[in-house]
Amino acid sequence: MSNNYDEKNYNKMGKCIGRKNKVIRNNSINNKSKIIFLFVLLVIIICGGILGCKVMSNNGVNFLKCGIMKNKDLRENKFKYEFGIFTGMDKSSVSKFKDYKIIVIDTTDYSKQDIEKFKKEGHVVYSYLNVGSLETFRNYYDEFKDKTLGDYAGWDNEEWIDVTNKDWQDFIINSLAKEMSEKKVDAFFIDNMDIYYNFKDDASKKTQIYSSLVKILQNLKEKYRQKIIINGGDFFVQQLIDEKKSELIDGINQESVFNTAVTDADGKVQFVNQKPEDREYFFEYINKCKKNMLDVSITEYVKDVKTKKEIKNYCKKNKVKYFISSTLKLNKVVAQ
């Protein structure tokens, strides 16, 4: 009897011990789950804190700047307008361009520190680089004036320059562009490639000019790995595309798609609508550039509200950046 009793008790005890061990194991598992959960939660909290904070130091030690993506988004979304050209303006403060994300400026009078201030505020800086003409007010005018090819109609302070000249090519590539690149600009905004169109009726000169412009672009791209935007120069750009060389540039800015400037009998500049056939030509050109993966913007010289609205509707529909100026001098920051 006692043996049976002890055996039963043993069995009961065994069952009790088994249940107790099971409870202990379950509690252990639960504790581990809680620890893992708390660890994951701690990681999330820490990461969230890192992304939302800024750790700063006053001694030249590297700063840990957090919330990078959030701050970047805030910078990008704070601008009213995507694109603006201000090449006719004197050196101006960062706040002057507060409404514009991409700003095209003549960086001659700006230091590397000035450009850094623009970029710190979220601006994208395109540096104006005049390849096809020589301006009389430049401090290097006297050095190259003997290499000019004639007056630039409509612009009293400019003359076409011989882009086939080795000294001019070297100056563009190894002096002007180098200085701009050292200032850490975001792109070269290259002007007056229209010299190619201007001499299109001179077969020998036309070929030499085209190959020289291509050479300049190749050298700029290889030497500086810089984004290149061509202002105007549609005749040249289309040949680049046709010859499968559009990889040399990153985008184009076309002036006067909707409007054009004419001089009246009194010598005053008037803005008038482009002819329908000219508009259609530019629309086709823009489509061609977009199909070849080039970034596209347009610049219009307009004062009337109706045309402004038409421009904005076209650009919104076709995903084209635009800048509307009330003056050819591009020396004013204006509301769009």
Structure description:
- This protein is an alpha/beta fold.
- Helix content is 46%, strand content 21%.
- The chain has 10 helices and 15 strands.
- An 8-stranded parallel β-sheet has the order 3-4-5-9-10-11-14-15, covered by helices on one side.
- The protein is globular, with a radius of gyration of 32 Å.
- 26% of the residues are buried.
Q: Which keywords apply here?
A:
globular; TIM Barrel; 8-stranded parallel sheet; 21% strand; 2 domains; alpha/beta; disordered N terminus
Can you lay out the helices and strands and say which pair or pack?
Blueprint: H1 2-51, E1 54-55, E2 64-65, H2 68-77, E3 81-85, E4 100-105, H3 112-120, E5 124-130, E6 133-135, H4 141-144, E7 148-151, E8 158-161, H5 166-182, E9 187-191, H6 195-198, H7 203-224, E10 227-231, H8 234-242, E11 251-255, E12 259-263, E13 269-273, H9 276-291, E14 295-301, H10 305-318, E15 321-325
Parallel strand pairs: 3-4, 4-5, 5-9, 9-10, 10-11, 11-14, 14-15
Antiparallel strand pairs: 1-2, 6-8, 7-8, 12-13
Total beta strand runs: 15
What number is the mean pLDDT? 84
- Under the CATH scheme, the architecture of the largest domain is Alpha-Beta Barrel
CATH homologous superfamily classification of the largest domain: Aldolase class I
Strand adjacency order, main sheet = 3-4-5-9-10-11-14-15
Secondary-structure element string: HEEHEEHEEHEEHEHHEHEEEHEHE
How many strands, which pairing sense, and closed or not: the largest β-sheet? 8 strands, parallel
Instruction: Please state the structural category.
Output: alpha/beta
The number of domains is 2
Radius of gyration over C-alpha positions, nearest whole angstrom: 32 Å
CATH topology of the largest domain: TIM Barrel
Any idea what the shape is? globular
Beta content:
15-25%
Oligomer: single chain
